[in-house]
Specification:
By secondary structure, this protein is of the alpha+beta class. The chain is about 25% helix and about 15% strand. It contains 6 helices and 10 strands. The strands form 3 sheets. A 5-stranded mixed sheet has the order 2-1-5-3-4, sandwiched between helices. The protein has a 3-stranded antiparallel sheet with strand order 6-7-10. The two termini are about 30 Å apart.
Length: about 240
């Protein structure tokens, strides 16, 4: 496989021909913040936190969906990008009802961690305070739509790792939300295998194990990566 030579933050590096800017940066120890990216499933560029500058275009491009090219010059961190990332995080907090002090993922939440890292100590936008409910109809699992950031990790994990196709997205704009099958209660689903891969993939406390209390939900993403890698290497085929 051919390689591409590019410059990331002034550092000359190389990457595989079909690699994304996010992969190239990660391979060279450069961290780009993400929320919708999940190892093992395809990228959709939903959260817009991984926006980077590419010389030659005025547009900001999502690092997770932009392929590398020969001679590309990428900037992953400057004042302009920090401004956009901070704004995106504030909008995510304002859009739903994120109350960290009572969340099962308090202290283990990727949204919360990124807010700390970007110095977000307040939100400049009006809170929407939408009336979202909690689906606790499943025997073992639950979903709190108030904490969902619509990263669609759970949808992609359900479809492309478990292969059940239970989760999906319905609605438009501010009314978009994760649904089960044809928008029925999770507990009534005939396709859900109760594998909890969706819970493992969730970056916040939107998906949780029943019985988890404040700060108890930790997500072990390595389990999903193990499954994907084992399938690709055909380790389970006798």
């Amino acid at each position: 496989m051919s390689a591409k030579t590019l410059i990331i933050d002034g550092q000359t590096t190389s990457a595989e021909d079909n690699a994304t800017v996010l992969q190239a940066a990660s391979d060279n120890g450069i961290t780009i913040p993400t929320l919708c990216h999940l190892e093992g499933v395809y990228d959709v560029g939903a959260c817009r936190l991984c926006l980077v500058e590419v010389k030659g275009t005025n547009k900001l491009l999502s690092a997770c969906t932009t392929k590398v090219s020969e001679g590309m010059e990428v900037t992953t961190n400057n004042e302009r990008l920090q401004k956009y990332r901070r704004m995106t995080l504030e909008l995510l907090f304002a859009e739903r009802n994120h109350v960290c002090s009572s969340c099962v993922s308090n202290g283990h939440c990727e949204l919360q961690t990124l807010a700390y890292e970007h110095g977000m100590d307040h939100v400049r936008y009006d809170y929407c305070f939408p009336k979202w409910g909690v689906d606790a109809t499943h025997r073992f699992l639950g979903m709190d739509h108030n904490r969902c950031i619509l990263c669609t990790r759970c949808v992609r994990a359900c479809w492309h790792i478990e292969g059940a196709g239970t989760k999906n997205v319905a609605g438009r704009g501010g009314k978009s939300h994760i649904i089960t099958d044809l928008n029925e209660p999770w507990g009534d689903s005939e396709t859900c295998t109760s594998c909890a891969k969706c819970v493992l993939s969730c970056p916040t406390g939107a998906l949780f194990h029943k019985g988890a209390t404040v700060g108890e939900m930790e997500h072990d993403r390595t389990k999903l990566e193990f499954i994907v890698n084992a399938r690709e290497k055909k380790q389970w085929i006798v």
